[in-house]
Amino acid sequence: MKRALTLSFYRVATVASLIVSMGSLAHATEANRTSSGRSFTAQVQAAAQKARSKSFESFVAAIHQVETTGRTGVIYGDGRRSMGPLQISKAAWRDAIKFDPSIGGTYADCKNLAYSTKVMRAYLMRYDSVAFKSGDWETCARLWNSGPTWYMKVRLTNKYWAAVRGHLQRQTG
Question: Measured between alpha carbons, how far is residue 102 from residues 28, 87, 98, 115, 117 in Å?
Answer without folding.
Answer: 52, 21, 9, 12, 14
